[in-house]
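**Fold in tokens:**
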Amino acid sequence: MRATVHPNTIKGEQVAPASKSSMQRACAAALLHRGTTQILNPGHSNDDLAALDVIQKLGAVVELKQSPSHKINATTILVHSDGVKPIGTSMNCGESGLGIRMFTPIAALSDQSITINGSGSLLKRPMHFFDTIFPNLGIQIESKAGYLPIQIKGPLQPANIEVDGSLSSQFLTGLLMAYAASDATDAVIQVKDLKSKPYIDLTLSVLNAFGWNVQHRQYERFEFLAHPSLAAHIDYKVEGDWSGAAFLLVAGAIAGPITVKGLQLDSTQADKAVLQALKAAGASININEQSIFIGPAKDNTEMDTQLKAFEFDATDCPDLFPPLVALAAVCDGVTILHGVSRLAHKESDRGLTLQTEFAKLGIRIAFNQDTMLVYGGTGIHGAEVFSQHDHRIAMACGVAALCADGPITITDAEAVNKSYTDFFMHLQHLGAKVDLD
């Protein structure tokens, strides 16, 4: 699919999409919960659908329910589960990095041999972590030299282990869930150099919402405490997605004003930090419990003025790099973004992809060790760009187009379906002119 976004101002209100980080964790918890889970406000991105497919492969029964006014996507999902009991010998996590890293330890709770695979860029992303850790937990594993497909055979036997948290918090999320479901009160997980702590906060929030009691000490020691029996029926509401909403908020700052609804201000999602960057850039922001109003910078007379370059550490929220590059392209001066090393093993080598595609738009991006420098305020040019099969690159270019000197055409624009299926439709709802073909 090709999406052409034309320069334009936007206005109005938009509800943020459901968080795939929250949705996928809710699916995993629903599988581990022996009983019925009702998932409210479920997501319908490709990653969300892959998670639903995986839990069914691992034994859950999933029932989708639509309201009369919402015929396309499920508004409620019921998950009936008796724990991990695979119905086949394989499962596929699509292109979901969280899915493969979270569900693999969970699948290992079974004593059945199972082959785990993925598709697209996931086939090129390293999974050596499992080869190192699983033998210590009594899990047999065969991998393709640390890459997919992986064949495992449990059952996982919780033990005291130490893991390297600098690789990815997603590996730790899977272990925390598997240990919690095993009532591993005699085992602890020691973690060194944990990155993306807010994502672990989200994992613990989901686990504790279901009734498990998992605690940490300075993110270095994770303990699994005794807890009452889980309720037979659990309701869990999926949060609005700060990762997807970051693109809406940046769009509002550079071409708005707009109002974004459906976000939890007390969320543990890492990408809530986008608000810090927007404030540093000088965007006009008004926040209340129900909504966030955001628009361009204003001077003392309330006239629109130039957004300014800013400095931001995205080490714990690397998914913010794409929307912040779109923001920085409009800001006057050199924006400094720290933590670029976290981008190497995303859907693309995201740092280099941003540099390549934004160069086509006339925006220079340079690197200095772990820092990205974005030279903004020089004007964004209309051009054709390639998403490189990366959903966040497609969205970043779509947002930047709102302030370009001509249309920007994004090839392989369907990449947005991985996380934010309705992205281009939501831009249109806010008044953007978007042609899809």
User: Anything to note?
Assistant: The first helix runs from residue 20 to 32. The chain has a mean pLDDT of 95. The radius of gyration is 22 Å. DSSP finds twelve helices and 24 strands in the chain.
